[in-house]
């Protein structure tokens, strides 16, 4: 009898997780994605600043900066701001042109 309870609970959790992943597959039209590269933010507990790292597509760290306030990346305007900064950092990066592309390496 106890096994039936656990199996029922497991089935309910599986159904809920499948429904959650199915809903997450549709990307919002408002979601701004960078053209190249990506950025990562880090908020440390107790600090009011945000560390932002900018990477090229090949996982190469292009630059790192500290924003004086906490950035809320759930806001579209903040993601657009970070995408603009990423583009500027990638344009400034002189090693990006000389680095071989991953698909060009034999």
Description:
There is one protein chain. By secondary structure, this protein is of the alpha+beta class. The protein contains three helices and three strands; from the N terminus they run αβββαα. Strands 1-2-3 form a three-stranded antiparallel beta sheet, covered by helices on one side. It is elongated, with a radius of gyration of 20 Å. It starts with a helix and ends in an 8-residue tail after the last helix. The relative contact order is 0.14. The model has no long low-confidence stretch (mean pLDDT 78).
Distance between the termini: 59 Å
In total, the number of strands is 3
Structural class: alpha+beta
Rounded radius of gyration (Å): 20 Å
Helix content: 40-55%
Write down the overall mean pLDDT.
78
Strand content: 15-25%
Largest sheet: 3 strands, antiparallel
Number of helices: 3
| Oligomeric description of these chains | single chain
Keywords: Signal
């Amino acid at each position: 009898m106890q096994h039936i309870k656990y199996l029922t609970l497991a089935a309910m959790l599986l159904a809920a997780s499948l429904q959650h992943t199915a809903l997450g597959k549709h990307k919002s039209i408002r979601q701004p994605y960078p053209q190249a590269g990506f950025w990562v933010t880090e908020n440390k507990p107790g600090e009011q600043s945000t560390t932002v790292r900018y990477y090229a597509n090949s996982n190469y760290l292009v630059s790192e900066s500290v924003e004086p306030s906490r950035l809320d990346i759930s806001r579209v305007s903040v993601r657009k701001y970070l995408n603009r900064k990423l583009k500027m950092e990638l344009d400034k990066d002189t090693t990006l042109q000389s680095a071989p592309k991953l698909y060009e390496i034999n």
